[in-house]
Amino acid sequence: MNSIEKFLAAKTYAVAGASNRQHKYGNKVFRALLAAGRETYPLNPVTEEIEGHKAYPKMADLPIVPESLSIITPPEVTRKVIADAIAAGVKNIWMQPGAEHEQASESAREAGINVIDDGSCILVLLARQS
To answer: Which residues belong to any copy of the CoA-binding domain (predicted)?
Structure first.
């Protein structure tokens, strides 16, 4: 199983950088995962609800530890999100294009996490599957 297959084989997901604004990638990724029938939780520190789902300020506030985490945040935010994901025990991390943080990727790999940070986009992949 390759990195992307491992990410998509998960039962639970979180989207860091999920947004209420439908034109934003964080919203599109969240909706795409929901549309694909995946149990998905939005992470956003300033929004209480996204697409009718309770939003959580940070990883530690989630009711579960998601197996897979999609990140759509600026690189400096990504660094903190990945530190939280490592501490929580997330198994798979996919940094969407523009969210990559080299040092955080390294830390996640050293912690044994499956990391996707090669510029591939989950929206493109999910669109091919539907």
So the answer is: 7-99
